[in-house]
Amino acid sequence: MRPNVIEQLIDVAPGSPIAEALAARAALMQASQANYDAVLTPQDPGGLPQPLRFALAARIARLGGDAQLAAHYTAGGALPETDASWQDAATTAILRHVDLIATTPRDATAADVVALQAAGVTTGDIVRLSQLIAFVSYQLRLIAGLRLMGATP
Amino acid sequence: MNDVVHDFTADPLAWRPYLTPVVLDDATLAQRAALQETPSNTKISDYVLVLAHDPESLGQRTPLFNGIMYGRGGLSRAERELGATAASVVNRCIYCVSVHAGRYIGLAKQPDVIAAVFDGTETALGARDQAIVGYATRLALNPPQATGDDVRALRAAGLSELEILDLTLSVAVFGWANRLMHPLGEAIRPREA
Asked: Among B5, B186, B173, B155, which residue's Cα sits nearest to residue B81?
């Protein structure tokens, strides 16, 4: 079985009630890892290269208050903060969108999609970006819940 | 456009994308393969056709979503829908709320629980519903605000560890779904039949 990033980031005691619950949901944990692969290391990254994806994922994890998950992504080959491409119009628009959707998705409107399009982000890349933001938001909530279950006697 | 819906409802709504959906006749092989992971007995929705712009993610997401919401054992289907609804209220995904509040009511026959979620008055509910809605609401916030007290309330209300994991999965997968459906389109009143 492939290593599962979520289970690597939580401390599950063997034989504990959580370990049993996770074993009952092993197919869903494997499907979660398959989704990680599809959004972080896709075969066709479109206009979102893998180092940018890892940097954005680290940012989403940080905005979600999970320093350990952020460190996982930073160590996974994230685009360095000093890279010149952060200054591109498209990348600037992408960062603004990441911050909005990760933290306050309720405030999103049609104008936010138009802003991405105006900066030259293609339809395919808007969908790829949306899946990346949404997946990491899922992952950090699943990790948060599992950690709470484990830490609460 | 004046057919857009901004208020929570459990009545059926439609969804209008901000992006052009993939046209099936023009779909690539990868897009066609990903679309086969969706129910084949209904017309493919505009939502799925928008997501088909990224076929790798769509193809993996559909089985995970279905497993979390409809998998056997553990938390009841109704209570998974309640967690999904509470998360969707936090994220104001009006369309997601209409679908999943409607499903909860269809399964549990308790519209009063949904009314309390819409009003933020879940403390008036029974201990089990209150614990589920409270945990779901706080886990859906960013950063997540759920605490050990929320987990203790779930256990005290009788939820097993597997049920708490299933609830966590349903809230988390709506942290995902809400971030697709609300930013990429809007809820509209369905056309008159």
From this structure: B173
Of B30, B67, B183, the CB nearest to A105: B183
- What confidence category does residue B42 fall into, taking pLDDT thresholds of 50, 70 and 90? low
Q: Tell me what pLDDT residue A120 has.
A: 97
Predicted confidence (pLDDT) per residue in B143-162, tens digit: 999 999 999 999 999 999 99
Eight-state DSSP code of residue B26 = G
Predicted ipTM? 0.97
pLDDT tens figures, B49-104: 999 999 999 999 999 999 999 999 999 999 999 999 999 999 999 999 999 999 99
Contacts of B4 (CB under 8 A, 6+ apart): B186, B187, B188
Q: Does residue B33 register a pLDDT over 70? A: yes
Q: Is B158 exposed, middle or buried (0-12, 13-18, 19+ CB in 10 A)?
A: exposed
Residue of A nearest to B143 (CA): A64
C-beta separation of B24 from B48 below 8 A: no
Separation of alpha carbons B93 and A37, rounded Å: 27
The angle formed by the CA atoms of residues B100, B163 and A139, to the nearest 5 degrees, is 70
Structure tokens at A108: 């999103």
Q: How far is B110 from chain A (nearest CA, A)?
A: 26
Selection from B124, B156, B120 nearest residue B138 by Cα = B120
CA dihedral B171, B37, A27, A71 (to 10 degrees): -60
List the single residue in B30, B60, B151 with the smallest CB-CB distance to A148: B151
Are B142 and A66 in contact, with CB atoms under 8 Å apart? no
